């Protein structure tokens, strides 16, 4: 990826425009899935930072999303985004029916599936491989951190070994994979966060999502740590993201640098609902420092 004065990182929007020749929009849809960390298979209550909506409060159905976004992007293409909860956590027959129902919708040109690293058995992997061979697709793995101590503390219910297995199996099938990291998890240091970044960016991923730890009112973490604030200022968060981008390989697509939290649910950081301000600040800082994605990249060992 060749960067310019105005484009300092490889955004997924840029990749999709290269792939499809026009703006592409993800339509966040609610498919009725649950999570093994809620129904008892792995645990109860969900991940401590997760809202009651499974981190999908903005999800809706396909036709509603198209109608909502059509005025803003009338000529855009659309990808169906299975976002809420764990979207490979069902029988393979149910999954096949739901995925193909979305792909058969006239305005849908591809599919994005968010899931957990521990919810990819052989049957599911084979279904995903089948879809990937015939449709545009990527999988999103909600890893959050590579540190098992934090994963346990946040009641997440999987470990880094589950991620390693998932990445191995997805890579063997040439399935594009995007990994989520949360910055500012309780007890994690900046060094811990950079270790997570280096580990996942050396694992063969297609893309990465990074966002700060938001405390939302409907999460177990709010009840346990109501006064926790992941970053005490927007400036500190922007500084960290810029330095992380500098150590991210330039071929990895950047899908998110901040989160989407409805303001009415947000507790802290109180400024983190200002998505546009945060993104503009990151771009401004990249330009001010005359730096870009991968500028300080070295060969890191996980």
Automatic annotation (TrEMBL):
User: InterPro entries from the entry?
Assistant: ELP3, Elp3/MiaA/NifB-like_rSAM, Radical_SAM_C, rSAM, rSAM_horseshoe, rSAM_sf, YhcC-like
GO molecular function terms noted in the UniProt entry: 4 iron, 4 sulfur cluster binding; catalytic activity; metal ion binding
Which Gene3D superfamilies does the entry mention?
Answer: tm_1862 like domain
Q: Which SMART domains match?
A: Elp3
Q: Which residues form the Radical SAM core domain?
A: 19-251
Cofactor(s) listed in the protein's UniProt record? [4Fe-4S] cluster
Answer whether the UniProt record assigns the keyword ATP-binding to this protein.
no
Q: Which PROSITE patterns match?
A: RADICAL_SAM (PS51918)
Note the SUPFAM superfamilies from the entry: Radical SAM enzymes
Q: Which UniProt keywords apply?
A: 4Fe-4S, Iron, Iron-sulfur, Metal-binding, S-adenosyl-L-methionine
This chain belongs to the protein called TIGR01212 family radical SAM protein
Originating organism:
Mogibacterium pumilum
């Amino acid at each position: 990826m060749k960067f310019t004065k105005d484009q300092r990182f490889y955004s997924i929007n840029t990749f999709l425009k290269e792939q499809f020749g026009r703006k592409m929009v993800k339509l966040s849809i609610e498919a009725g899935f649950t999570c093994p960390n809620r129904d008892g298979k792995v645990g109860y209550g969900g991940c401590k930072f997760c809202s009651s909506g499974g981190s999908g409060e903005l999800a809706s159905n396909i036709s509603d999303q198209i109608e909502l976004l059509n005025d803003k992007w009338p000529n855009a293409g659309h990808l169906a985004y299975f976002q809420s909860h764990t979207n490979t956590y069902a029988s393979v027959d149910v999954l096949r029916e739901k995925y193909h129902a979305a792909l058969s919708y006239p305005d849908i040109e591809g599919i994005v599936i968010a899931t957990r690293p521990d919810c990819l058995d052989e049957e599911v992997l084979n279904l995903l491989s089948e879809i990937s061979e015939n449709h545009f697709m990527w999988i999103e793995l909600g890893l959050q951190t590579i540190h098992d101590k934090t994963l346990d503390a946040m009641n997440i219910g999987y470990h880094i070994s589950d991620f390693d297995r998932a990445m191995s199996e997805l890579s063997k099938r040439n399935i594009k994979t995007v990994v989520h990291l949360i910055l500012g998890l309780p007890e994690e240091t900046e060094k811990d966060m950079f270790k997570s970044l280096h580990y996942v960016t050396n694992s063969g991923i297609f893309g990465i999502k990074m966002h700060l730890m938001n405390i939302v009112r409907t999460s177990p973490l709010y009840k346990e740590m109501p006064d926790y604030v992941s970053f005490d200022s927007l400036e500190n968060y922007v500084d960290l993201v810029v330095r992380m981008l500098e150590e991210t390989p330039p071929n990895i697509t950047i899908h998110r640098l901040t989160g989407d939290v409805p303001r009415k649910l947000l507790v802290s950081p109180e400024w983190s609902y200002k998505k546009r301000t945060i993104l503009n600040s990151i771009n401004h800082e990249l330009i001010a420092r005359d730096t870009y994605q991968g500028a300080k990249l070295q060969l890191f060992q996980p």
